[in-house]
Amino acid sequence: MDPRLNPYAPGAGTPPPELAGRDELIERSAVALDRIRAGRVARSFVLYGLRGVGKTVLLNRIQRDADARGFATAKMEAPEDRSLPALLAPNLRALLLRLSRGERVRTATNQAFKALAGFARALKVKYQDLELGLDIQPEPGLADSGDLETDLAALLIAVGEAAAERGTAAALFIDEIQYVAEEQLAALISGFHHANQAQVPITMVAAGLPQIVGQTGKAKSYAERLFEFAPVDRLDVAAARAALCVPAEKENVTFEEAAIAEILRQTLGYPYFLQEWGKHSWDMADASPIAPEDAVQATARALAELDASFFRVRFDRLTPSEKRYLRAMADLGPGPHRSGDIAERSQRKVTTVAPIRNSLIAKGMIYSPAHGDTAFTVPLFDGFMKRTMPAL
Length: 392
Fold this sequence. Notes:
Helices cover 53% and strands 9% of the residues. It has helices at residues 23-37, 55-68, 84-100, 107-123, 148-165, 182-198, 212-219, 223-226, 237-249, 257-267, 271-284, 292-308, 312-315, 320-331, 339-345, 350-362, 381-388, and strands spanning 44-48, 72-77, 170-175, 202-208, 227-231, 337-338, 366-367, 373-376. The radius of gyration is 23 Å and the shape is globular.
């Protein structure tokens, strides 16, 4: 069929043509944001799940909805090699500029700019990647102590007060939050804790891998009371069918039932993979309905493309010892697996592979769903490891 009309959209954070099965999460986050704007109690929202479940898509959708409802938002992604202050400062500056656009800068907004200037000046030496140009003088004693936890709390409160002055709420959207260093994550949690206590309308909606739940609890023991942790999982059968079939139906194309069954079996209901298989099934088919043999050929094409991109970019970041560890994991199946079983399959002692496991967790390749267990953060990665490293 005509590839120009192919409706599927596999990509990093690319909105799918049919966002199926996520209405409840979108509504819960909207309720939390509206409560905070109205001065009512609501926890910050943290989406967590494996790669390919659509966390970034959901985060972007929640932000777009918030923008449309008049919230002051800032979206950022936490990279592994950048500090939290360097990430926050320019985005908070942009948020404050939007709050002040079109009108005279009011008292609280001006105070927030001064807090940001003090914050940047005081922490620039400690976090040398922090660069922020502001033509406003800081106010002595406001967010300028040089202590991240203290200064970030003062800054978030000032931004919340600026949003309140405009009759709205500020919302920070942070993707890949698991990469924020523990000390800085603790400061972020403490900052929102103090903002809640001050009853200012500022909150966070974040997304990260499953380890973020444990990381926040380790950083601050009260994190579970401050954040609402919302798991984002693979789609159930009905939602997966909708994600696959609705985009094609809008183009007057259907799937045979056996083709749908084959694609759902291969993708396991993961939204990103449904887009990949849908795209390749469309391209392989000569006409509607898309047949089972088209879906089978799509599997070969999709896996080849995933191996060359989605899986490969993660594999290439690994050291040889990390690759061997993941290959041993793959030999045991999709997982999760006991750490001792992985070490035994690697013919190594648990103590000698523990640093490798910790490094892989830090890189976001694996996580621990329960004490002593290890699982891939990337679905279907066990199959890729076997294809790319046939021998253990």
